[in-house]
Design a protein that fits this description.
The protein has helices at 11-23, 46-50, 108-120, 145-158, 172-178, 192-199, 215-227, 254-262, 271-275, 278-291, 317-333, and strands at residues 2-5, 27-32, 37-42, 60-64, 84-86, 89-91, 97-101, 125-127, 162-165, 181-184, 204-208, 233-237, 267-269, 295-299. It has 346 residues and is an alpha/beta fold. It has 2 domains: 2-64, Phospho-2-dehydro-3-deoxyheptonate aldolase, domain 1 (Alpha-Beta Plaits), CATH 3.30.70.1140; 84-345, Aldolase class I (TIM Barrel), CATH 3.20.20.70. Strands 7-8-9-10-11-12-13-14 form an 8-stranded parallel β-barrel, surrounded by 7 helices. Strands 2-3-1-4 form a 4-stranded antiparallel sheet, with helices on one face.
Length: 346
């Protein structure tokens, strides 16, 4: 249930409604917009809420039930777009955010070189995996905590916030110490224990869509995170599994449009995993921006053919520069911009 307060509702009236809602066992989330305040009543017994006659409470304009199973993530509950700050830049709003880097941390010198490459190319964050979930147990699994230390060094040296995947509830506290954004990978989108654990973190969470997940299931996973108190959630479309074999996955760009109509959370696109072939990555990045994505997460390596993981979908420095030029032009046509990375001036 959402309780929409009148435009001129006083703080005393808002506080009174909040206390009445809490008294009948509901959780409360306040959304203060430009025009009015919305009070979200989360959980609890709806009949108990109806019994306290909130419609006639001072300052209340109307009550609106939320029919969707996700509440906190719903645009009904939070009509204005959420903007998530990562370092000196934001995801959502008018600016387009770029996270770039190799699939995995392969070594200190290589990662520092990659960090400089993507920083100079205009990226706003460095992405790389310290722990790598692989289909084969014999594939490179990442460098673990040593990889996290290298990423933290790259952040200090080049001024880029770092994004890396967390795979285990036991590792959340460890990653909190080293990283700026906790990524939930496609295989863990419905790992509800992990979602709740990152929901108790203060770090932003980048939630990738499961490879076979519906948009509603994706948003319900975001709800798990938000229900624990962390509302700094970024959705990431990274392709879904279909019958098509020409690409690694089928990049569902309609999900960008649909998700942004249903939720206030920012939506970014990972074209690298979406298609799995570097020749198509730039085109899909352009299409994602045209569709309204709030950012691009892309795999970049100075020597892509030599990358230890996902070499086939990783682009090189020249392709990255070209992609940045092209998406900046598309963003400008749409009245958006790719801001100059502050880190590039460090």
């Amino acid at each position: 249930m959402i309780i929409i307060m009148r435009k001129n509702a006083s703080e005393t009236e808002i506080t009174d409604v909040v206390e009445r809602v809490k008294a009948v066992g509901f959780g409360v989330h306040l959304s203060r917009g430009v025009e009015r305040t919305i009070i979200g009543a989360i959980g609890g017994d709806r009949a108990a809420l109806e019994n306290i006659s909130l419609e006639s409470a001072p300052g209340v304009e109307k009550l609106t039930p939320i029919s969707k199973p996700y509440k906190l993530a719903s645009r009904d509950f939070h009509p204005e777009d959420t903007v998530v700050r990562i370092g000196n830049h934001t995801v959502g709003g008018n600016d387009l955010w770029i996270g770039a880097g190799p699939c995995s941390v392969e070594g200190r010198e290589l990662l520092l070189e990659s960090a400089q490459l993507v920083r100079d190319g205009g990226a706003h964050a460095l992405r790389a995996g310290a722990f790598k979930p692989r289909t084969s147990p014999y594939s490179f699994q990442g460098m673990g905590e040593e990889g996290l230390k290298i990423m933290a060094e790259a952040r200090e040296q080049f001024g880029l916030p770092v994004v890396t995947e967390v795979m285990d509830t036991r590792d959340v506290e460890l990653l909190d110490r080293y990283t700026d954004v906790l990524q939930i990978g496609t295989r863990n989108m419905q790992n509800f224990s992990l979602l709740k654990e990152v929901g108790r973190s203060s770090r932003a969470v980048l939630l990738k869509r499961g490879m076979s997940a519906t948009i509603e299931e994706w948003l319900m996973s975001a709800e798990y995170i938000m229900s624990e108190g962390n509302h700094n959630v970024i959705l990431c479309e990274r392709g879904i599994r279909t019958f098509e074999t020409a690409t690694r996955n089928t990049l569902d760009l309609s999900a960008v449009v649909v998700a942004k109509s249903l939720t206030h959370l920012p939506v970014v696109v990972d074209p690298s995993h979406g298609v799995g072939k570097r020749a198509f990555v730039g085109a899909m990045a352009r299409a994602a921006v045209a569709a309204g994505a709030d950012g691009i997460l892309v795999e970049v390596h100075q020597r892509p053919d030599a990358a230890k993981s996902d070499a086939a979908q990783t682009i090189g420095p020249a392709a990255f520069q070209q992609m940045m030029h092209e998406i900046s032009a598309i963003a400008e046509v749409l009245g958006r911009r790719v801001p100059v990375s502050a880190a590039a001036h460090v």
